[in-house]
Amino acid sequence: MMTLSRGGNLQFLVRTFFVAMVFCLAASPRPVSAAYPERPITMIVPFPPGGPTDIIARIVANALSQSFGQQVVVDNRSGAAGNIGMGQAARAAPDGYTILCTSTAIAVNPALFKNLPYDPFKDFAPVTELVNAPNVLVVRPDSGINTLADLIAKAKAAPGTFNYASPGAGTKSHLTGELLKIRADIQMQHVPYRGAGPAVQAVLSRTVQLGSVALAAAESLIKSGELRALAVTGESRWFSLPEVPTMIESGFPGFVSDTFNALFVPAKTPPDIVARLVKESRAAMQRADVREQVRRAGFEIVAGTPDQLAARLAAEIPSVRELVARAGIKPE
After folding, report:
1. What residues contact residue 314 under an 8 Å CB cut-off, 6+ apart?
2. Is 44 helix (H, G, I), strand (E, B) or coil?
3. How far apart are CA 165 and CA 192, in angstroms?
4. What's the rounded Cα separation, in Å, for the pair 123 and 266?
5. Which of 94, 211, 247, 250 is a good FRET partner for 23, with 20 to 30 A between their CA atoms?
6. Beta bridge partners of 232
7. Distance between CA 62 and CA 73 in Å, rounded?
8. H helix intervals, 232-332
9. Residue 166 pLDDT more than 60?
């Protein structure tokens, strides 16, 4: 049996303690975010390049690339009203290296499609609502319609003869038009187009009497006098069109129908990575250059918290379902 002197025993215990500490430190996991990100991040945009969500995504991706010191690459995965890209993001590894930048479609599509490749609540963790923008109701200046009250009076006087254009069936602009029909008790035929640009052109060419579109698509034409804005659908007047009333001011309490763009990550992404993304993305939206780019794109900064985004989804999804049912829009 081997024996140790008192000094040797002390040295043995010290060495043993040191080896044990090294082993524990090596075995215990480091905070996930300590080195995050160590490689490029993919930001999935479920719409084609050049659209509003893509524009916002590229502004944010550029700012995050600078703050992270890693490239944030925009990956457009369009199709099926955004469902293809959102489904791919939902199935991505929850490691912080795949981010979803999507629009209000994530809150609208559950009411419009019977089978979705994702669940907006179970498959995603909210990061931040980046920006939002209202829709706007526009007519030609020579239409004889100067206010929303004029439009409603004319539509009631000639039921079934009014048409309105939107950027497509199921868009927030389409739902805005349907909500107007219900709230004002008027009849109008919806004419969907492939995007806000063609919808605006339909108003200019007198193909339809009214356009319900995202504000960015019509703002320059409103300012030039080629279109007349009857109302915006935000909670307050728009910063660059202060003379245009809101729907609320026009006699429709609570009539708010805006479009947001927001960041999500796959569910089960480690909380510290989510927290890092929240911190960096919200900080990016406060930069002066980012704010200027966002406003030029026709949006206003929100930069909300994950809880605020979750609350918005929780309120908006059932609200859209109710509107779709009342308007008689059939899910695909």
Report:
1. 121
2. strand
3. 6
4. 6
5. 94
6. 136, 246
7. 9
8. 271-284, 288-296, 306-327
9. yes
